[in-house]
Amino acid sequence: MFASLAVFTLLALKACTVSAFPAYQSLAGLTREELDAAVASVNFVPPPPPPGPLSDQSAKLVNDAAHPYQPLQPGDQRGPCPALNTLASHGYLPRNGVATPVQLVTAVQEGFNLENSFARFLVYSTFLVNGNPITNLMSIGDKTSATGQDPPKPATVAGLDTHNNCEGDTSMTRADSFFGDNHSFNETRFQNLVKYSQKYGAGKYNYTVAAQLRKFLIEDSIQNNPQFTLVSPRLFTAFAESVFPINFFIDGRDTSGQLDLDVARSFFQNMTFPPDFFRRSGAVSNVGQDVVTNLMPNFKPGYNARGVNTFTVDPTSATLTQPCVRYYNFVNNNIKGLYPNPTGVLKQALNINLQYLYEATVAAGDNCTQVFPYGH
Ligand code: HEM
Ligand SMILES: *[C@@H]1O[C@H](CO)[C@@H](O)[C@H](O)[C@H]1NC(C)=O
Ligand SMILES: *[C@@H]1O[C@H](CO)[C@@H](O)[C@H](O)[C@H]1NC(C)=O
Ligand SMILES: *[C@@H]1O[C@H](CO)[C@@H](O)[C@H](O)[C@H]1NC(C)=O
Ligand SMILES: *[C@@H]1O[C@H](CO)[C@@H](O)[C@H](O)[C@H]1NC(C)=O
Ligand SMILES: *[C@@H]1O[C@H](CO)[C@@H](O)[C@H](O)[C@H]1NC(C)=O
């Protein structure tokens, strides 16, 4: 399954030859692309499997002495996810914001008690689109050279800021990509979350607020964003993220289900755990999401087809109750689109990561049939 030692040595030799010459020349009868592939290959280590669930899922202090907040250094990556930003700022992830899938699964479990199969699906689906399969690194923010040499286009390896995979429209605290910055904290949008928390949550963010705010954000984007779209896979993250602040940003010793707005701001804007913060007790994922979907029983995935207020249902998109359609379309369209004809170690790396993605659907109990876009 993995590159043999002989192949590895051959590639290493090629790489050494290459590095002795100027980068812009085509050498040794190889095209630039072939040389690039050879150089990339030497760095290939088959990605190890993700960790299983935490053995101890109790609430505990996570803003501890071993994980102090440190301000960003120039070049550090932060992006649209307040949780990953926070984990990087406290050293649960590499502080430069460039991480492996194993580091990501480990960090979201340790720091927030995110349930294992959910964490694995989220990580491998975003990694396959936004990460570098050869170097096994992904930026939690923008595209960066720190993830190493890119595989051939149309692959992008552009980090979590990439629009329309997991990042997408109708975020609570980030603007729609049509309006420009799709990943930085946006005070106007946070103030809207505050307004909804005052109106429906007596000044706290709870499931009732989450539902009302999600409904508003979708209607608002339909009315104001000519390029609005909310289809799978973004559809799934949009609804899950609405309840994540309640499930994960409330201190583990507090079981009220009411999120204080200063605590919310600490995560969303400052990318830091509040002082003395305990993670929740017991691993969960998107509990409470039914409260949100129940407020919009007729909502179907779709997009503005001809400018604002032209919402059109997309029958090809998975709905929230079709996790296997989500998985099939994701692999056959999204991944195949980025990697139409991978070869060599790139194909191996993709197949291994696709295997880990499929295993996450099995662990989640989805009972999907495995698909093999690049053969067995
Ligand atoms: C497991 C790995 C994770 C990945 C790869 C990931 C990735 C992302 C991405 C790409 C976004 C942007 C979506 C958008 O456009 O709004 C996002 C948003 C978000 N994430 Fe994560 N996330 C992960 C785990 C978590 C965890 C554990 C939490 C909670 C503790 C969390 C909380 C949130 C919230 C609340 C948002 C919404 C931000 C907003 O709407 O303003 N995420 N995440
Ligand atoms: C913040 O969000 C609002 C509302 O979505 C948008 O009009 C504004 O352009 C955004 N601001 C920035 C700086 O992106
Ligand atoms: C989202 O933000 C990133 C980083 O600024 C930018 O490169 C990208 O073009 C934006 N996406 C869209 C669709 O505008
Ligand atoms: C949210 O807060 C409001 C106001 O206190 C309350 O009426 C509602 O029941 C709360 N919802 C949940 C799910 O806690
Ligand atoms: C966010 O950081 C700023 C600057 O360090 C600080 O003044 C503010 O109190 C912080 N707010 C929260 C809610 O953490
Ligand atoms: C899983 O799917 C197979 C075939 O699609 C079906 O026969 C089986 O009953 C399903 N199992 C569960 C537990 O849903």
Walk me through the structure.
It is a single chain. The N terminus is likely disordered. This protein has one domain: Chloroperoxidase (Orthogonal Bundle). Helix 7 runs antiparallel to helix 8. The protein is globular and about 60 Å long. It contains twelve helices and five strands. The strands form two sheets. The chain has a three-stranded antiparallel beta sheet. A two-stranded antiparallel sheet has the order 1-2. It is mainly α and 376 residues long. The longest helix is centred in the C-terminal third of the chain and has 20 residues. The site of protoporphyrin IX containing FE has 26 residues, from helix 3, helix 4, helix 5 and helix 8. Pfam families: Peroxidase_2. InterPro entries: Chloroperoxidase, Chloroperoxidase-like_sf. One of its GO terms (molecular function) is metal ion binding.
Short description:
The chain is 42% helix and 3% strand.
Class computed from helices, strands and strand pairing: mainly alpha
Number of strands: 5
CATH class: Mainly Alpha
Which H/E pattern describes the elements?
A: HHHEHHEHHEHHHEEHH
Strand order of the largest sheet: 3-4-5
Shape: globular
Largest sheet data: 3 strands, antiparallel
CATH topology, by name, is Chloroperoxidase
Mean pLDDT: 91
What is the first-to-last residue Cα distance? 10 Å
Strand content: under 5%
Residue windows where pLDDT falls under 50 for at least 5 positions: 1-27
CATH architecture: Orthogonal Bundle
Bound chemical compounds:
protoporphyrin IX containing FE, 2-acetamido-2-deoxy-beta-D-glucopyranose
Keywords: Heme, Iron, Metal-binding, Oxidoreductase, Peroxidase, Signal
Protein name: Heme haloperoxidase family profile domain-containing protein
InterPro entries: Chloroperoxidase, Chloroperoxidase-like_sf
GO molecular function: metal ion binding; peroxidase activity
